[in-house]
Amino acid sequence: MSRVDAVPAPVLVLAGVLSVQFGGALAATLVPEIGAAGSVVLRLGIATVLLVAIARPRWRGHSRRDLGTILCFGLAMGLMNFAFYGSLGHLPIGVAVTIEFVGPLTLAAVLSRRPRDLVAVGAAAIGVLLISRALSLPLDQLEGTGILLALAAGACWAAYIIFSGRTGAAFPRLEGLALAMVVATVVVLPFGLWDVARHGTAAWDAEVLLKGVGIAVLSSVLPYSLELLALRRLAPAVFGILLSLEPAVAALAGLVVLGQRLSPVQLLGMVLVVLASVLVLGLGARRPRAELPV
Predict the structure, then answer these.
(1) Please, are residues 167 and 114 in contact by the beta-carbon 8 Å criterion?
(2) What is residue 185's three-state secondary structure?
(3) Is residue 84 assigned to a domain?
């Protein structure tokens, strides 16, 4: 057993949560400079180079099914990042992440077979409504574009969870993740080139590139690797609810890095989401591991 295998899977997930949200807060400072797509291409491009160098994946000898899994995983990853970074231009990071969580929340509801899980999912859904202020603001005052982008990112996040689990089961170590990162980079590259043409190459200075390296490590290399390793030992339903801690960590990162503050009602919504996570985490620890969907 390796040292990583000795670490409990929930600890790996929580470490990934901290990493990706502080990386997201750093990315929010980059989006206004080079655009959402440019930021995603920079992040994924650097992360892909690092992961390919570390994992040294085999490019041949894979079955059609495994290659299909990699294509779907990479597509979900690329579009998830693109939509989420786009939402950061309209919403505070804590709000964007909470709305994005609708994707994993829906996945958890579909996979859940226990009534208490459904109660937790319902509480988290109410929390999402509160933090988005959909119940308190007139429709014309809501950040519709940001909300739609965050919801799209959530749908891709659900697909990411499923195909990440399949990738971890089909490929050794980080080989599948490295191949999927290549796919994700290719998917968003055309949008990134358009952002470069729109903002100009002058915006890509040394500071931007340095931020890109930090974002690549914090938001891609470290969390994706930890999550992939965790999903080999953790059912997707439990993993999806564990990620409900993301909004609280995102709000903390937004406050520390960006100075973003949420209203009491939004914080109440976030508390509901976190309580749902704690409830399911406690139940999940006593439940036998479910089989990954195939």
Answers:
(1) no
(2) helix
(3) yes
What is the pLDDT, as a whole number, of residue 240? 62
Cβ 29 vs Cβ 258: under 8 Å? yes
Residue 2 lies in a domain: no
Q: Residue 242: what pLDDT?
A: 72
Residue 294 lies in a domain: no
Burial of 69 (0-12, 13-18, 19+ CB in 10 A): buried
Q: Which has more pLDDT, 61 or 236?
A: 61
CA distance 194 to 178: 25
DSSP letters spanning 69-123: HHHHHHHHHHHHHHHHHHHHTTS-HHHHHHHHTHHHHHHHHHH--SHHHHHHHHH
Write the burial class of residue 207 (CB in 10 Å: 0-12 exposed, 13-18 middle, 19+ buried): exposed
Q: What is the pLDDT of residue 286?
A: 43
- The predicted structure's pLDDT at residue 130: 85
Which pLDDT score, from 0 to 100, does residue 174 have?
78
Measured CA to CA, the distance from residue 35 to residue 196 in angstroms comes to 8
Does 1 reside within a domain? no
The residues, ordered by sequence, that sit 6+ positions from 176 with a Cβ below 8 Å of its Cβ are 57, 66, 69, 70, 73, 167, 168, 170, 228
Instruction: Give residue 71's domain range.
Output: 7-285
pLDDT digits (tens, 9 = 90+) for 45-57: 888 898 888 888 8
What is the total count of domains within the chain? 1
